[in-house]
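G.,

No rush on this.
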Amino acid sequence: MVWLLQLLFFFTFAQAEFRLQSQLTESQRKDVLKVLGLGSSNKNISTMEPLGTESGLELALAFESLDTSDIRSLIADSESQSTLSYPRIMIGKGIYDRTDMFFHFIPYTATFGISEFGASLRFNFLREDSAPLLLSGLVHANSTNFNNQLVSRNLGIDMMLGIFVMPSLSVFSTLGLGLANGKFVGGTLGVTDSLDAEKETVESLHAAVACTQKWDMFTLTASFDYYKAPVYSLKLSALF
């Protein structure tokens, strides 16, 4: 796990500080919230099976890349910020029968300027051994701070249907709904055209596809999420 911490350190400090343009109008603020707020919502990229209540502790490090090209003109350093990439640390635990809880956060650094924390609850409804299918539901909430210019509080609900291609390989798809409430900072150093703090709300359907590959206690997951902009994720986890 040492190399993961080294990679996290390098990845965090390799990113430029993320800043929004000033004088954002209402429509521009909503465009920003659709991409950044919804895009930074929880990603259902854990192993498909229930974690279990006896051991069932999952520790993971994920890297996400959010496509910000649709709002490129609203980002201060638009030439180098067509994507926003960040690490996310995730902890999962089986809490009751087929119910799992997950916590996650993006560590804050002064140079990177983004932080996040959130939690999700997953209910595993169906496992059909004869046709190895699994049906799960997920509710999640998180809050993301973008350089103290925008704070987005996000809620979501998803349904996931997966299939085990092989005992160690699975693929699954997700469909749900996401909601983001964003507060944009005002004042002379703020980002709003009114110079007052402004609140906006947006919602969108959420779709995702992912695959997982297991090696003993380790699992590698790759996923593609879409709200109003695509998000690519890669996660390495260990189950104890």
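When you get to it, here's the other one too:
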Amino acid sequence: MYLALLTTELPPKPNGIGDYTYFLGEALASQGHQITLLTGAGDFQTPTGCRLLTTAFTPSQGILDSLPPALATSQPDWLVIQYNPFMYARRGITPWLPLAIQKCKKMFPQLKIAIMAHELFVQPENWKFMVMHPFQKAQLWSLLQLVDVAFVSIEQWTKLIKSWIPNKPVVHLPVSTNIPLAVLADQDKPLLKHQLNLPEHALILGSFGSGHMGKMQGLLLNSLRKLREQNIPAYLLFIGSGGKAMQAVCPPDLQPFLITTGFLDTVQTSHYFQIIDLFLSPFLDGISTRRTSAICGFTHGLPVLSTYGHLSDSFWRDELADNLVAVADEAGFSQLVLRAAQEPAFRAKLSEAGLRLYPRYFTWEKITEKLLHTLNP
């Protein structure tokens, strides 16, 4: 099968959807499928076995003139749109994208089109989002009328999308890790800790990703404080681009115990993961199958603690009951962190739960199998 994946983001630029598209393309190509990544101008990395076409996307109405020639050149069986509204326009509003897809359907009537929705639209939580919300919602609705298949990264979204396109397949498709395991030898771990000025016997709490408020930075810092108050030599290692946001909200008395790395390449990130004792990954809307930061914790065999909320997929509380607390139960989360910090056997139990879960839902083999079965039943 020949698939063209439309994306505006790819490594080395820090972007979760760009990473997803990169690894998805590589996984599909490794199975013998022909893959072209359609994107715009940029210094992008090309996944192994894939072709990169950087003339497919231009901003605003330029996409009307750039996407059709790219499809004429590549002539794929399927166009798979990687979708987050903010990928295609600064405020997530671009009427030109649906118009470009409509134009391509008319020009290439044999072309099949799918969308992978990593985000749907912003919720009207503040005045800016209140303005964006109806436009982004209408934009997604317009795109869904044009596609043959819709994939969503969260199970909870399937009901809404199905109500908009009742006669088309709507499939829940989890994401996978964007940080493959790069094994760090045990003898090298003390040196890495020393480089970070971490004491030899410190308990290292870890977190990872960007700095948006959905990461519940205050809860991370409060958990660190609770451990320090119990005379547990805890440090919080925040890996990734969200380090500055963490530093900005960290109280002065906790600053000595917060270590941030900034953005790192995948090998460095994987190495830092391997010195973490307890991985904290709470989310304001709950853990879900789009949360690569938590999934990276499972990949590295870490005990992952998170929250269960309104966007959590149905299986989480059955599969990871000991690892989760309700979003609103901040005291419960801190108590769970304290127990895990004090009980190595409990940490091992948490790790095992994640290691059992990962191969069932989150390997690239599972994800590509589900995607290909949907596109070619």
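The longest strand covers residues 78-83. The first helix runs from residue 16 to 30.

Enjoy the weekend,
O.
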